[in-house]
Fold each of these.
Amino acid sequence: MSETHISGKQVLIDRQPAVLYSALSDLSALVEKIPADKRTAITATADTISASVQGFNLGMRVAERNPFSRVTFCQMDGTPIDFRIQACFDTVDVPDKPDADCMTRFHLELDAQLNGMLKIMLGNKLQGLLDNLTDTIAAAAEGRTPDMTMSSFI
């Protein structure tokens, strides 16, 4: 197994970091936003989320909350890949806007333990997955309808 680190792209979101932090730090609230027909196999609490996908049990839990700047997630028991995902929020001062602290620079970081075969199979796809997930979160945060099709993440 080798450690793989991937930094997702950074986006600027027209919301305060506290808004993004609040939305991502409660996993049960995230599930409520998913259409009912898509969440039948999903179970969530404020700290955990799990689902059965193509026969695999996948899940993650909140490992750490650093208010208004970072939420760290890690795998739950039974999830086949050992990983940590950090959602990072930084306040951006925009001098030409009267409410200068309303913007957030947002990005995701992934650390995973992957064996050689998984690294070859998933390495490049993980970068695309993080970037697409970042776009989805940004769209949802700004009130736009995100592309939630599985093909947008693969």
Amino acid sequence: MKSHLLIIVSALLLSACDINESMRSNAADSSTSEARVIAAKSGCMGCHAVSNSVYGPAWKLVSKRYQGVPDAHAQLTAIIRSGSAGRWDQITGGKRMPPQQGSINDEDLKVVVDYIITLNAAKPLTTPIETTIKPDE
């Protein structure tokens, strides 16, 4: 019993560190902040974190798995709503993700799933690349 409590407390602390660090570094991105606040309020961060696997897989791993999947949003939404087992056994030790029916509404779930899916998306360049060829002088 004590070991289970220790695991849960450790997971919560790691999640809290991950969410606080990321929210500070991405404060300018309101959609990121909104998704993380919703996830924390809905209890998602008790088992998941963005960069490191806690009790469930890191969201960056989830994003990587669904990268390029045409109906990724629908699949991930269905998995969250109905729960899952067997997809992440190497991380969860075979533990099942319980169904998330009442903990998050559809609108909030869409925000969180959109965020998860885009974690590994290519980031646009913030500075233009010089494309002008200058003649030799």
